Amino acid sequence: MLQFFMQFLKHPKTIGAIAPSGKALAAKMMVPVNFARARCIVEYGPGTGAFTRELLRRRRAQTTFILIEQNEVFFQKLKKELKGEQGVYVIHGSAEQVNAYLSAYGFESADYILSGLPFTSLPKQVSERILEATQKALGEKGRFITFQYSLAKQAFFQVYFCLTGRLLEFKNIPPAYVMVMKNKESGLA
Questions:
Q1: Residue 111's closest CA among 66, 73, 75?
Q2: Entry pTM
Q3: Strands 143-148, 88-92: parallel, antiparallel or unpaired by DSSP?
Q4: What is the structure's pLDDT at 19?
Q5: How many angstroms separate the CA atoms of 95 and 133, rounded?
Q6: DSSP state of 95
Q7: Which of these, 186, 41, 23, lies nearest to 114 by C-alpha position?
């Protein structure tokens, strides 16, 4: 908890919260995931691993899991914690490069991309590049699942995706919206 708070103080625009997500929000983020069919799951900004642990607990052994973490401290922590986990790849990099990472591990697209990124505080150009890369990474059938503390960015997300579901988790501090999206039917950008 202290480590997370210290990283927030150093990097408030990229961390986006003073504390890691709670167990209730982690469980809510898993609701839209069909673990029985998922071959590849990507997580943007896993931080200290609140969603990561829940994903690992529920995934099938043959599911590939790609974690993309930009923060050096969190990356090192996850790399150490997940060392030896089969099919789990921890990458120190940017979600903007998701397609290169997918390709490196033999995938054209991801079944699910879960995001803990603070789109409300990220620079608009960075958010745009991440969402454009995410469109390509999802292909025709993938789902993008993110949480936000407000609905302020919902219209922004809908420029890139169709909203297929929205859940609210009151038990998280602060309460959070989980948004489930897919690429628009008209094709990829």
A1: 66
A2: 0.87
A3: unpaired
A4: 41
A5: 8
A6: G
A7: 41
